[in-house]
Amino acid sequence: MKTPMKARHFWREILGAALMSASATLPAQECATSDLSPFCGEMRTQARYEKADNTLNAVYRQVLDEISELDGAYVDTANLKEKFVEAQRQWIRFRDAECDAWYQINQMGTDRGVDQLNCLIDRTESRTGQLQKWIAYLPNAGRSFMFAPEKGVAVKVIRPDAAHIKLTVLPTGESRQIEVSEGNEPLVGQFVAEDFNFDGYPDLAVLTAAGMVNQIYDIFLYRPNDKTFEPLLMPRQGPASNCGKLLDVTVLPDAQTLSSSCRSGPTWYADAYRYAQDGRLYFYGSTRVLWGHVADALCPGGGSTETPAVIAFRYAPDGGVEAQKCIGYGNWENIPADSRVRLTVRAATLALYDAPDSEHARRHLVAGDVVEVIDVSHHAGPWLAVRFHNSRRGVMQGWIQPDAGDIAAPP
Fold it and tell me: I want to staple 299 with a disulfide (CB 3.0 to 4.6 A). Which of 129, 141, 275, 326 is the partner?
């Protein structure tokens, strides 16, 4: 019979107490996504548990830091800390005993190791949620944060003022002060540790309120080779994004994409970013909202105030438009490479301008021309950027400002 497998995870806090927890250990081995063997299933579950355990450790340290910064005139911080540490010790003993019992229940099954790990994951994630309530309740909540980007390394983050953070890497103790966006105000729970560049290491995001509903994400990527952080820079080429910055970021691991969304007036907009082969961030996609007769022609069925019609554009690393698609109003969704949004010119002639607001047009489209929509502007618009394959001149590109009845969906 296979016996329960044990590994040690050390809880470090400022009093120097080491708290031990149990888990299952497996030999280091890479498993392909398609490998459904029991061994690889256990490997993946072990990785999930280690992630949950690292998150719990970081939140636990943050609670201890928050307790240490309480005003001693109002709270006996030493006694509070002692009780909190003892409660955590007792919780670890309870969790490990319960999951050992769970292993015993399933000891005749071939998945007993996975069952034990799933028990550890469930109890650990539940405890993390409980500790996060401590952070939200403490008077100085959100000013400091700790997380573990890799084994043996911890990072403490403090926001001493609205415009800066201080990063301290442990155990070396190296510190660095970094500028961040000021916005309206820092947010409670303003720090997020997540893998923003899909390299397997959690990075840091600092959140700041911008307006009534938007949140700026200043992201700092962890570099394991020298254990430092560097800011994630916005792309310098390509079309303009809707949001201008990284706002309300959602990580989409399966698509290797960062989705950014923002609200202007009553309307939400979305941008998408990916990483080029050289590691730089590039503008991968955006949504453009359509109204009125343009919406009726390009994306029938949308266009109301509540659910406006939307075209999503997909861009290449060099900024060129690769594909476009009418999508539902909301967040970014992936656009197939062969998807196109086209229109047919119905007017006898339609001026083709070099840029929106141009006074004179050197070129014209004629009735029956079918063009591909590659951008939308509502500045004194609506204006549509279009691409047209002319049999004599090759690819033509420009802007049109169609009136109602000038354009229609292709037959």
Answer: 326
pLDDT single digits (tens) 62-119:
888 878 877 665 578 889 999 999 999 999 999 999 999 988 887 777 777 888 898 9
Q: Which of 257, 253, 280, 279 is nearest to 270 (CA)?
A: 257
What is the rounded distance in angstroms from the CA atom of residue 354 to the CA atom of residue 358? Answer: 7
Q: For strands 267-275 and 383-390, give the pairing.
A: unpaired
pTM (two decimals): 0.65
Q: Do residues 371 and 343 lie in contact, with contact meaning Cβ atoms separated by under 8 Å? A: yes
Amino acid at position 152, single letter: G
- Size (the chain), residues: 411
Strand stretches in 182-227, DSSP E: 185-194, 203-210, 214-223
- Phi, psi angle pair for 118, to nearest 5°: -65, -35
Cα–Cα distance measured from residue 257 to residue 149, given in angstroms and rounded to the nearest whole number: 20
Helix (H) or strand (E) holding 355: none
Beta bridge partners, 323, equal: 314
**Rounded to 5 degrees, what are φ and ψ at 188?**
-65, 135
CA distance 208 to 88: 32
Q: 276-311 burial string, b = 16+ CB within 10 Å, else e?
A: eeeeebbbbbbbbbbbebbbbbbbeebbeeeebbbb
Q: SS3 for 306? A: coil
The answer to whether 43 and 117 have CB atoms below 8 angstroms apart is no
Cα–Cα separations (whole angstroms), residue 315 to 229, 273, 331, 340: 28, 9, 17, 13
pLDDT tens digit sequence for 318-327: 999 999 998 8
Distance of CA 175 to the CA centre of its chain: 26
